[in-house]
Amino acid sequence: MAEPNEQHDTELTPEELAHTHLPEQTMYKIQTAGAEGADADDIQHPPQTIRTNELRCLYFELEPDETIDWHTHVPDLDEVNLCLEGRAKYTLEREDGSYQTLEIGPMEFVYVPGGARNKIEVVGDQTHRSLSVAKSVSVARLEALEGKTEQAAPGDTDWPDSLFVDRKRDEIVAKNENLVSK
């Protein structure tokens, strides 16, 4: 049996239909400071955000003395975070005033529900590196709507997009030329 990359299975998508209903397609590679061969002086340090109309992917790092303090996600922002390195404690404040705390380590996920009031704290003396995925929203935190946030949050302008692909208009809205390549 042939390996998946060795040949194309034309029966899955007949050649005459393969691209007839799709806009022009291009893949992009986005480098982080930790990428193999990356020139640390030219690479933007975290956080880094990649967005489309439907999806937001955020890479962030927290040093041992750093915290993402209490904030409240908008109701339709369900977030899934994957710990890549280090450990972190995620705390959720419930409506009744009680708290739920989960500690995650490398290659563990945490699901943070929409509307959640939560915070993230580093556990131990190692940098916490995480990948966060959520649907794309114009404002991620209720505090931003109220003008009561001093800390940048995903979706805020203080965390610029490394790449923003507007699939509805089929255009690149933002692209950091130092980080993004085809």
What can you see in these coordinates?
This protein is mostly beta strands and 182 residues long. Helix content is 3%, strand content 40%. The protein is built from one helix and 13 strands, in the order ββββββββββαβββ. The protein has one helix at residues 142-146, and strands spanning 29-30, 48-51, 55-62, 67-72, 79-85, 87-93, 99-104, 109-112, 117-123, 128-135, 161-166, 171-175, 180-181. The longest helix has 5 residues, at 142-146. The protein is globular. Residues 150-157 have low confidence and may be disordered.
List the helices and strands and how they pair.
Blueprint: E1 29-30, E2 48-51, E3 55-62, E4 67-72, E5 79-85, E6 87-93, E7 99-104, E8 109-112, E9 117-123, E10 128-135, H1 142-146, E11 161-166, E12 171-175, E13 180-181
Order of strands across the main sheet:
8-5-10-3-2-11-12
**What value does the Rg take, in angstroms?**
19 Å
As a percent range, the share of strand residues is 35-45%
Based on CA inertia axes, which overall geometry fits? globular
Low-confidence stretches: 150-157
Helix content: under 10%
Largest sheet: 7 strands, mixed
From the helix content, strand content and strand pairing, which structural class follows? mainly beta
In N-to-C order, the SSE pattern is: EEEEEEEEEEHEEE
State the end-to-end CA separation: 31 Å
Mean pLDDT equals: 78
Helical run tally: 1
Tally the beta strands: 13
Compact overview of the structure:
The chain has 182 residues and is mainly β. 3% of the residues lie in helices and 40% in strands.
